[in-house]
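WARN retry 2 of 3 for item q-0093 after timeout on previous attempt; input resubmitted unchanged.
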Amino acid sequence: MPIQSKQQPPYYEQGIAVKTYKALVSQAGTAAPTVTILQNTLGDIVWTRFGAGIYIGTLNGAFPTEKTAMHIQQDEWGAKGQRTINSNFNTNSIYITTTDTTWTAVDNRLNFTSITINVYQ
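OK item q-0093 returned
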C-alpha cells in the first residue's frame, strides 16, 4: 500500500499553476511499487504491478498529454548490472518499465527511485 499525503494547492511557476507529484518509488519481488510522497498537489496515484518490471500509476484524467512533464531517476544498480528505466504516460496512467542489461523486463530495480510529475494548468 502506498504511503500517501494530503493534497495541497498547486504552486505557480512564472504565473502558471502547476500540480506536482514528487515521490521515491520502490518495488520488491512481485509486489506493487510503494511510494514515499515528498510533495503532492496532483492527487493520490494508485500504483500496481502489471507484470515483471512493468508498473502502472493510475489517476484518472490527471495526465493531459500536452500539459504533463515527467522525470524519473536513472542510475546503476550495483552488482546486478545497469538498471534501465523507461517511462511513458497517457491521460489516466503513468507507465514505468525496468530492465536488465539484456533489455529483459525485471523486478527489484526500483529502490527509492525519484519521480517527478508536473502538470501545467
